[in-house]
């Protein structure tokens, strides 16, 4: 019997009928009774293989591969964010992919940091129901990821240097069977380094099949002055053409905030960061916080990271889905069309097969400004 996480404590006392397993560097195949067998200088079964070592540039490693039916229920990862002062975008250079049931094309493809709501090659604290990053690049994902036949998670190193140490664990349960109408987890990263005026940024399109949209992460680099957050998020559902079925009231509103996230501090407007179970604004910076050359200042274009989980309010579709967001600002002269740098991750569940994703842009084009 399959029982997935229902989002609360109400069912915690019910008997569970899965067989718990975990894959990490200590037990790379998740085999029963074979965890922690590697030896260290402390002796047998004493932390002999805590991580993957020296992942070479251009190498793709398989983090986890398992036969179903089953469901991944937790992923934990940590890795350093730089290898040298010059090579400091590890979180954008590493690419995570996930495949379900022997599919040829990944259902999940994203730079590692952005998948966990940490864009710009920088970590930040995230405290939400499906994603948590604590306290220093401890990346956690709790999205349920069911699979009927097989699951595979890979990591590609597109960084200039080898990754000395990559720590991870994939926790999952095996079941005798899954419901026939199960849907599969998907996530896709996109970016426009310069959006077009009067053309909405596309968060997701090309989705065909039945499913439900469950979340958005946006990494916004503002390139123009004045307030940036008036653009509306639109959901084009099941054949919508010129106009969407669901259209919000503004970017700050979609992420649950209001009044420019503003607070007055010493006569100056300061935006307020926040984390909640289903929506948040965990990151703001206009400075290079990791690498500072003493011959240069550390100014950067303002960077903002947001998440919004449609867990209590999934966006359901039967045939197709497209999601966009406008680039509209406001100043003393009123509303105006903007051009900014927008990256995003869309998260959704759908039936298979799914359409292949567009090719991921090069690592250099993924780097933050």
TrEMBL record:
Name of the featured protein: DUF2961 domain-containing protein
Disordered as annotated region, ranges: 24-51
Pfam families found in the cross-reference section: DUF2961
Species of provenance: Blautia wexlerae
């Amino acid at each position: 019997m399959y029982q997935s996480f229902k989002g609360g404590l109400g069912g915690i006392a019910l008997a569970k009928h899965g067989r718990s397993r975990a894959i990490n560097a200590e037990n790379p195949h998740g085999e029963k009774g074979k965890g922690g067998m590697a030896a260290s200088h402390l002796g047998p079964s004493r932390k002999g293989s805590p991580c993957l070592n020296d992942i070479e540039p251009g190498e793709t490693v398989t983090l986890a591969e398992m036969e179903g039916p089953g469901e991944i229920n937790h992923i934990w990862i940590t890795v350093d964010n730089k290898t040298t002062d010059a090579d400091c975008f590890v979180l954008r250079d590493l690419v995570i992919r996930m495949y379900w049931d022997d599919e040829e094309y990944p259902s999940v493809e994203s730079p590692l940091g952005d998948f966990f709501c940490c864009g710009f090659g920088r970590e930040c604290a995230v405290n939400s129901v499906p994603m948590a990053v604590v306290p220093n690049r401890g990346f956690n994902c709790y999205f349920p990821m069911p699979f009927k036949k097989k699951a595979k998670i890979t990591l590609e190193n597109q960084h200039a240097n080898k990754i000395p140490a990559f720590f991870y664990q994939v926790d999952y349960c095996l079941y005798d069977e899954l419901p026939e109408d199960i849907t599969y987890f998907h996530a896709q990263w996109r970016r426009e380094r310069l959006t077009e005026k009067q053309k909405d940024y596309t968060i997701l399109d090309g989705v065909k099949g039945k499913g439900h949209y469950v979340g958005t992460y946006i990494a916004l680099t503002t390139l123009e002055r004045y307030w940036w957050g008036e653009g509306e998020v639109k959901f084009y559902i099941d054949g919508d053409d010129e106009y969407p079925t669901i259209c919000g009231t503004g970017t700050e509103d979609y992420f649950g905030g209001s009044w420019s996230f503003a607070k007055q501090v010493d006569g100056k407007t300061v935006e307020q960061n926040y984390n909640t179970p289903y929506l948040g604004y965990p990151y703001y910076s206009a400075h290079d916080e990791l690498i500072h050359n003493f011959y240069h200042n550390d100014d950067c274009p303002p960077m903002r990271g947001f998440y919004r989980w449609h867990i209590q309010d999934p966006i359901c579709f039967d045939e197709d889905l497209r999601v966009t967001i406008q680039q509209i600002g406001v100043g003393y002269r009123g509303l105006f069309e903007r051009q900014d740098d927008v990256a995003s991750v869309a998260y959704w569940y759908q039936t298979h097969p799914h359409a292949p994703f567009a090719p991921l842009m090069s690592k250099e084009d993924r780097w933050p400004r």
